[in-house]
Amino acid sequence: MSVQEYLDKHMLSRKIEDAVNAAVRAKTPDPVLFISNHMKKGVSSVITKVKARQILDSRGIPTVEVELYTNKGVFRASVPCGDSTGMYEAVELRDGDKGTYLGTAVTKAVKNINEKISEALVGMDPTVQLQIDQAMIDLDKTEKKSELGANAILAVSIAACRAGAAEKEVPLYKHIADLSGKTNTILPVPAFTVISGGKHSGNSLPVQDIMILPTGAVRFEEALQMGSETYHHLKAVITEKYGANGCNVGEDGGFVPDISRQVLPLCLTILVFHIIDQRTLPLTPVREGLDIVREAIGRTGYNDKIKIGIGVAATEFCIDYPIASIEDPFDKEDWEHSKRFCGLGLCQVVGDDLLMSNPKRIERAIHESACNSLLLKINQIGTVTEAVDVVKMAKEAHWGVVVSQRFGETNDCFIADLAVALGAGQIKAGAPCRGERVAKYNQLLRIEQELGDQAVYAGEDWRL
Questions:
Q1: Which of the four pLDDT bands, split at 50, 70 and 90, describes residue 273?
Q2: 30 marked as binding residue
């Protein structure tokens, strides 16, 4: 084939002429670079390679990282890991060899990506997220992604999502919003963990965490400032009451003061406590924790602008404190009491272990009114597409949505873009402390700045 025949076959003369004309119109100081980029934009992107490796999460436990290649670049994603897994969530594939990372290595999941998933996805358009995710689901062939591993599938799904955004030349949150059919984006209210308890802390606080929600802020930037200032005032309060050792932090950055060891009433007594005179109730570890958080909020001067959330608690706290949100007040199989508690209408009742981001359990909870908010943990479901779908389900039921971290986190800030894109209204990414937690909040700052006058902070409408 002659040079001219080659040029004619691929219409290169016309394409080069168009690129040169564009460079002239742009008056670019670097025409070669401009023409190169212009030509590159004219080529539809496809996935050319998917490569995975084992890295460590914030606890020093292995997790999966993926690099997905297209002719537009390389796109990286890493997945979070839960401290515990439930029978209703997608399976996190681990090797189980006790001689390597105490059985937590993920080389099987990595191998599945490098040898099976990569082969299935090469040549696909990265903008078609649904087809990419469905291809992996079909390849796995199990209900809970136990063959390939949800950790393998999710890492690729997120990386592909980033590649799709790059191909469309839009921010990640805008691409996800397009995938979900949303036309508006919302900066979520952050639920900052300020005190950690339960098995993640080593103290006597029987609930998992106490959080603050700056619902009275006007912008996310202001909300982050409120959270940070309150966190540091709380550090001072804890130092005064418990000593400097009380300012050690848990896995998600919350302080772990040595809360008193008095017995917390069982959650099953919630339905009785709400009718008792609150002054007759004894001091409990949770009440003690709430008191020091309230004192810290008082020192900031943000009293009317910050609400409190707790992982597990009793009804009386909603009356004496500005409790706006409670996660899993009962056991994950106690549907009856969850329904009755939600029916009291005291605050947002978030389904975490009750739901496990599982569509069937969400559907049941909606039908039985067992809670009124979804805690979305994307690794419990396994793909971007399925995460979008369950959020739609929750929103259609007029539920709140909290996009959540896991205790084993990485510096990947995908959930920040996801929360904005889906208009979740709430994000739980831990304390305003520790790099893997702050990474999410810093990304939200960037998004707000990028949106400029179009930025909307959920604020008082955090549950809508």
A1: very low
A2: no
